[in-house]
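Work Package 4 report. The design task specified in the project plan requires that, given a folded chain encoded as structure tokens, an amino acid be chosen for each position. We show below one input record used in the internal validation round.
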């Protein structure tokens, strides 16, 4: 080895993502992150060490060949990079925007041991956006038709991933969506400034282009039951109805006017386009002072949406400290830049209304942190006598959501947990019913987009084996 070859590689700083200025973006719903230029993407891809063990691949729930697509970007072979991504991931433009790479592929990147990992998510977004701008859509090979039919209940990330994979395997797939737009949580749950609706539509259209039939306004459990779908000729059914049942704290005043679940608040804004007022006059009351209860990504989405809808003071009320917040660090940082007010170590005890039944205050108690609980985070403990009030007109409860009960309650013999989640094999998605599979949040509880996609991928393989009798 020459002296030149033995020299350590100089540290190259990670390419920063261009973003809208906080003072500007808090007044619009345009995308905050602006994406890499070709020059930035090539420079960032050049940081990859091309590790032989490829730990990043093991950290990806949908098994993308990360070193391959990153290397192709570094060589300016953008069309090949897209083809590499599409071979494993039907939703790269979505994953590149909302996947928590910092806890998955980037977390195990070798560069991250002593510095900053390769910006894998940003590069994935770059490749997907390049495909969109170029008009060159990577089309994978479709296997010969098997004559088998699969019904997919729900068009969220689990259902869309499974549908795309099964279509490529040669099966006939129909996706049933209860709402009028396909995309599930990608459409109704994630705001425009994080994931533009046009991006979701394009990914849904891509999957439809693989031969998948998309049916909207079809409520499985009402329009048809799972058993009826089987009797009508579907050889297998996949249930991916997500976690759309909002949780509340069961404190006094939650029935007042002006109290929303985050699910309702974001659905009104996203799916019903309140963010385009007055072009779309969707009823959504925001007021000037808003309290969002919770510390996850949904809470950040709710707070940042309220800011854009005109609230002057938006409080994030969270019972632990910022360190314990489950939201992505990037989302917390963005929200604080947009002037969200973080009330950490604070827990609501009641909501107070006026004579007309509208919210006027939220009463909270200060918390301290005790010993770690089952989640590994320190348990919040109320400090006696520390109650105080915050004047607000709107309260958004973003403390989590549970499984949609409609399909389990109308499907005889389908086993669920005591919380209502469908019991399914982790490796295959097989439920207690023959030919019926499930995956995503309806099984695990509310989780991430990419974990739901991983469940869809595993279930697709299992369904393929089931249909082929192997």
């Amino acid at each position: 080895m020459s002296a030149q070859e033995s020299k350590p590689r100089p540290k190259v700083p990670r390419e920063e993502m261009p973003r809208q200025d906080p003072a500007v973006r808090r007044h619009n719903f345009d995308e905050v992150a602006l994406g890499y230029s070709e020059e930035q993407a090539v420079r960032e891809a050049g940081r990859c060490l091309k590790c032989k063990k490829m730990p990043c691949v093991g950290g990806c729930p949908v098994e993308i060949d990360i070193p391959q697509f990153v290397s192709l970007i570094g060589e300016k072979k953008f069309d090949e990079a897209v083809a590499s991504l599409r071979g494993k991931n039907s939703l790269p433009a979505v994953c590149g925007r909302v996947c928590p790479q910092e806890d998955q592929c980037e977390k195990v990147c070798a560069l991250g041991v002593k510095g900053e990992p390769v910006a894998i998510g940003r590069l994935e977004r770059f490749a997907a956006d390049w495909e969109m701008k170029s008009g060159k859509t990577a089309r994978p090979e479709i296997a010969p038709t098997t004559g088998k039919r699969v019904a997919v209940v729900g068009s969220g990330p689990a259902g869309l991933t499974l549908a795309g994979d099964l279509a490529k395997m040669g099966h006939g797939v129909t996706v049933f969506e209860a709402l009028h737009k396909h995309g599930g949580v990608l459409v109704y749950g994630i705001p425009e400034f994080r994931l533009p609706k046009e991006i979701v539509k394009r990914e849904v259209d891509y999957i439809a282009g693989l031969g998948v039939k998309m049916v909207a306004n079809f409520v499985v459990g009402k329009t048809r039951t799972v058993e009826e779908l089987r009797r009508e000729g579907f050889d297998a059914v996949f249930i991916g109805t997500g976690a759309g049942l909002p949780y509340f704290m069961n404190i006094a005043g939650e029935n007042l006017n002006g109290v929303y679940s985050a699910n309702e608040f974001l659905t009104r804004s996203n799916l019903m386009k309140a963010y385009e007022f007055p072009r779309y006059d969707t009823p959504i009351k925001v007021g000037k002072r808003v309290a969002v209860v919770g510390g996850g990504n949904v809470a950040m989405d709710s707070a940042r949406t309220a800011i854009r809808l005109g609230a002057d003071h938006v409080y994030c009320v969270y019972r632990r400290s910022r360190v314990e917040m489950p939201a992505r660090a990037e989302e917390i940082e963005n929200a604080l830049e947009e002037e969200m007010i973080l009330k950490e170590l604070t827990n609501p005890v009641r909501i107070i209304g006026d004579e007309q039944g509208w919210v006027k205050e939220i009463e909270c108690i200060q918390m301290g942190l005790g010993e770690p609980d089952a989640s590994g985070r320190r348990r919040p403990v109320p400090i006696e006598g520390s109650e105080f009030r915050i004047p607000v007109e709107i309260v958004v409860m973003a403390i989590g959501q549970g499984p949609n009960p409609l399909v389990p309650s109308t499907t005889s013999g389908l086993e669920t947990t005591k919380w209502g989640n469908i019991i399914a094999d982790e490796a295959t998605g097989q439920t207690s019913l023959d030919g019926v599979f499930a995956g995503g949040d309806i099984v695990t509880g509310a989780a991430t987009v990419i974990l739901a996609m991983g469940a869809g991928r595993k279930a697709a393989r299992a369904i393929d084996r089931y249909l082929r009798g192997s």
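The CA atoms of residues 370 and 379 lie 5 Å apart. Validation will be extended to a larger panel in the next phase.
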